[in-house]
Amino acid sequence: MQDLLTSALNPRSVAIIGASDNIHKIGGRPIYYMQRHGYQGAVYPINPARAEIQGHKSYATLADLPEVPDLALVVVGGDKTVATVEECAARGVKSAVIIASGFGETGPAGRELQDHMVAKARAAGMRLYGPNTQGLANFGTGAIAGFSTMFIEVPPMDGPVGVVSQSGGMSSMIYGLVRGRGLGVRHVHATGNEADVTAAEMAWAVAHDPDVKLLLLYLESIANPEMLAATAAYARERDLPIVAVKAGRSASGQKAASSHTGALANEDRTVDAFFKHHGIWRVRDPHEQARAAHAYLKGWRPEGRRLVIISNSGASCVMGADAAEDLGLPLAQLSPATQADVASKLPGFATASNPIDVTAALLSNSGLFGDVLPAVAQDPAADLFFLNIPVAGAGYDVDRFARDAAAFEAATGKPVAVAAWQESVAEPFRAHGIATFPNEGEAIAVLSQVAGHTARMRQPRTTWPPLPAVPVPAGAQGFLNEVDSLALLARHGVPTVPMHLCRTADEARAAFDAIGAPAVVKACSAEVPHKSEHGLVALNVQTREQAAELFGRFWSKMDAMGVQRDGVIVAATRKGQHEFMVGARIDPVFGPVVVVGDGGKYVEALKDCAVLLPPFSQDEVVQALRTLRIAPLLDGVRGDPPLDVQALANIAVAVGTVISGARGTIASVDLNPVMVGASGDGAVVVDALVECAGAASRP
Description:
The protein contains 24 helices and 29 strands.
């Protein structure tokens, strides 16, 4: 694959089929760009109507070229596109970029044409980029097989940033925003329809450019998750941050879900889990990608998230503290020795604790920042530094502030971000290479992002021992009944509630005698997975005769419903401190996923859950639980004891091994409720539903 991608990113020769002398036309831009940006290979314009194009000899057909080009840029449209791709494949071209639209994005007919081109290309060993793409651009080699106007509006400069996007417009936008911050960009590649080469493959190629220090992705779908995962793993090895925008935050995938888990693990939650699992940082839009780019390129890799705030305004200290709390950045608790050292450098009315208010004394003593920063840097609690300068100007030695901050950052390697809305204040800091923002919200958000991303990239990857075999009952289709579901889970280490399956009233009486009061009585039918909705569950059953009466009622109701009668369950009642749910499903793109969160009857309405991708550890489950709205309950509130989150985490890991070990024979698993007791008391599953692959909807 690498050789084929190299033929597109660093080709020895490029043919432009449909070339133009007009640099403002699609067929003219690439030639103009390659001449302007130092492409050293051969450029072959193909246009039968011209003898010369932009100083290059023009050829009538591909067959007339003196050699087979590594890369062909197909600029012709309509039916000519397909014929031209066929000609390129027959001629032995290694890579072809198809600009034209009107293919897979238009419907079945267009998809058929697109598939035809891919088949011809693959048969000849040629890779296709597009169609419906803005093209490829490598400013490191000058190989630019694209036509973006942004390369004229914002002049290119080679640099350490790579951009891979499924959208041409977004590739240009990300490029323009990053360049607008004075940063160089080497790769700008748009994959369009991805008929053949995907964004994940392009990301793999760009990640292997040793001069790329930051990789920015724009994705609308993830067609090749295995390759993207491999790219992320390689990027972690070489400490290359990947920051992604995934558009289309849609829950449409849950429409076809027949289980609670399917409704909760919707597309966007699962994308988040995939990115977290592989060390990729997700942001909302290209503006956020560009905003943090300078910080990444400075090599910030903080040890922790503890923040120090320094300002010449008490109000700015307060606002900075508010912003830090919003983003989960704790303020560093400076030692008494550090505070004493800081106080010795400040006037008596200044604040030496964090946030540090140097006051308006900064006007008369321009060295205060330079004095305070090194004093605080010695404190092991200080990971991140934020300087907020809400006002400065005449009489302030702003250049000295900037010099001192830059010297401090260079000497310590500690991240320093500055908020300065006055351009006269911001410009000196930017000139000295300090990450500078117009307000405290943006500055602290970038510090939080880089600290969080660094921790994510450093987190050891979890591995599991060989997965167990997880056979489902022979001939099982659709949902297993509750007894079979719980039995399957119990065989793999999931603690389940004691129960008996009864097929007569006398068996129900005997089961009650064995279990005791209070008991739970439930209908059991593989064709009725959600029993509560049909009035087929009774709680707090106190007598054996009540159990027998409920058996008869439920048995008759199942008969009236026309569903399979597997029996009636008499189960022990189990209570806990809180009800949780654990689920798993096979995602059509990402494979096995596990969901853990708040349980009970409102689980789908409240959707307070987290998604994890196997393999994961118990600690990762606990981390996920602490992101939920109910997280404060985990440690106990209003006199309640802490919950046994470790027992819940063990169940989540066991369910992950079950869905993974089933190797596609199980479509989903729902455990709700999972009763979790106080710390040390464990957790137990009282209801479960296992759906075999290929299950149809049930009542």
